[in-house]
Amino acid sequence: MVVTDPGRRAALAELYRRGWERYVTEGITEKPVRAADPEARARQKRITSSARYLADHLHEVPVLVVPCIRTRTDASDAVVQASQFGSVLPAVWSFMLAARARDLGTAWTTIHLFHEREAAEILGIPFDEVMQVAMIPVAHLIGESLKPGHRRPLDEVVHWDHWRG
């Protein structure tokens, strides 16, 4: 679903802000900051600052894309959930890459899902039949360049033949 109506975007932004407040109140943003590695703490603070900025400015974003699945997986086992998300994630990722190629910025966000039912009401989505999986803000990039985000070395995240601690 593509949302350009200013009133609906503002209402979704308010849900996102409420979700962000819950996120902060529950201490979710602070847990990773306690990492022993100073670089990891600094990186997490930048991510938190960016997320806070989005919460404060989401109402200014000209387009919000809300990818949906035509079923709910709330009570489903992992294989059903993985299959459903596997059907939408590649499409959304392709959309985000295509947007980037056109100098548009995007971000995968999910905080509004704390209030998914209210978002469904705002957008006229039949909640019992359709599940929202994200909200993607889309806007022109500001600044001259993007830089890649930090990624942990592959040997820290790739496991061969068995899981290692």
Please tally the helical runs, counting DSSP H or I stretches of 4 or more residues: 5
Could you say what the CATH topology is called?
A: NADH Oxidase
Backbone CA Rg:
17 Å
Total number of beta strands: 6
The ordered H/E elements are EHHEEHEHEEH
Mean pLDDT equals 89
Q: Please report the distance between the alpha carbons of the first and last residues.
A: 41 Å
- Kindly give the count of domains: 1
Helix/sheet category: alpha+beta
CATH class: Alpha Beta
Major beta sheet summary: 4 strands, antiparallel
Flag low-confidence runs: none
The CATH architecture designation is: 3-Layer(aba) Sandwich
Shape: globular
Strand order of the largest sheet: 1-2-6-4
Percent of residues in helices comes to 40-55%
CATH superfamily membership, which one?
NADH Oxidase
Tell me the fraction of residues in β-strands, as a range: 5-15%
Structural account:
With 165 residues, the chain is an alpha+beta fold. It has helices spanning 6-25, 38-57, 78-101, 116-123, 154-157, and strands at residues 2-3, 63-65, 68-69, 104-106, 131-132, 136-140. The chain has a 4-stranded antiparallel sheet. Strands 3-5 form a two-stranded antiparallel ribbon. The mean pLDDT is 89.
